[in-house]
Amino acid sequence: MLDARFMTALGTDTGLADQVVREAHEAGDFEGAMNAVRRLHREQTFRIGMHVVTGRTTAEQAGLTYTSLADACMKGLAPAALSEAERMGGAFDGAVAVVALGKAGSREMTAGSDLDLMTVYAAPPEAVSAGRGWSAETFYGRFTQRFIAALSAHTAEGGLYEVDMRLRPTGSKGPVSVRLEALEAYYADEAETWEFMALTRARLVWASDEAFGARVEAALEAALRRPRPGVDIAGDVRAMRDLMDRERRPKGFWDLKLSAGGQVDAEFAAQYRQLTAAQAGAPLTVSTLEALADDPILADAWRTHQQLGQLMACAFDGGGDPDQEPSGFQMRLARTVGAPDFDTLKARLIDLRLRARRAFEAMLPALRDGI
């Protein structure tokens, strides 16, 4: 029999992060912490999925809850990874933070979402670890490697998340963990518009020191708000979408992400809105829907595709084609967005995508040279 809490409304279990942190700490060692977190993650993922499949939650609430679960796992495993780095290299006089980007940053995760992350640190210039004399770059690099392993490795209790660190400054070419001063310099002097687009969804998840976490948050916001004279933000965003249209074609009708008028159009529009808001000194948000508050067609397109995507992510492991599924599933998919049947759902999607693409193109007109 399921626990009575199992089907209670999502988003009401505010003690989940505390529970994960406590059980990870009480596990006693790094591997024990990994297994403890995986057991809780498995239970909670199933719970959220049941709410999605049975229609007990909205796409937005499911996204928030999946993300809260990921946050809890990171808050439980980051201290364990830091302790493991200290065990290997000795204590270190510094601070480190974990920043989420992508759907983890915007709190819009689905079942099977990966984690786009970066770690940021600060330390005195000449600091070395007490045991092996590691530099700050080495010590926090080891922390980050252990943290990635804690999240992505498969143990006897299974896995958690795939982790992608490529959105950090300099990507895979640079250190795996970024010094705060280097991050500030990179966004001031080198970053391109697509990197600022990614930064609109950056969100602090955990910091070893609360004051340092506040410094990181301030640095991220300052990077977005810093004037970029001579940069054509609208042109850059449109050029990037046009490039994707040419080089990353949708895999089929049910490619909710890449289809014209689908999630990427809405998300690029939201990121454009946030970049212009940042330059104007207006309030910022990581939420796609909040960023699209003045763009109802694009907001509707994003919400519809996200609602379908939440159910499809629960139903399919790594891909699937609703056209090939039994009629019962097709009807469930249709009812997810209020359509009376599967054919009507497809017709509505075609119309909504056409209107969303027109709204996107009106916001970001094509460049004259077609690039």
TrEMBL record:
**Which segments constitute the Glutamate-ammonia ligase adenylyltransferase repeated domain?**
16-217
Q: What class of enzyme is it?
A: transferase
Q: Which residues are listed as membrane-spanning?
A: none
One GO MF term on file is: [glutamate-ammonia-ligase] adenylyltransferase activity
The cross-references to Pfam families, in alphabetical order and at most eight, read: GlnE
Q: What is its EC number?
A: 2.7.7.42
The keyword Ligase is assigned to this record:
yes
CDD domains associated with the record: NT_GlnE_GlnD_like (cd05401)
Alphabetical UniProt keywords? Ligase, Nucleotidyltransferase, Transferase
Listed GO CC annotations: cytosol
SUPFAM superfamilies in the cross-refs? Nucleotidyltransferase, Nucleotidyltransferase substrate binding subunit/domain
Family annotation (InterPro entries) = GlnE (IPR023057), GlnE_rpt_dom (IPR005190), NT_sf (IPR043519)
Question: Source organism's superkingdom?
Answer: Bacteria
Question: A biological process (GO) annotation for this entry?
Answer: regulation of glutamine family amino acid metabolic process
- Annotated coiled-coil segments of the chain: none
| Name assigned to this protein | Glutamate-ammonia-ligase adenylyltransferase
- This protein's species is Brevundimonas diminuta
Give the gene symbol. Answer: glnE
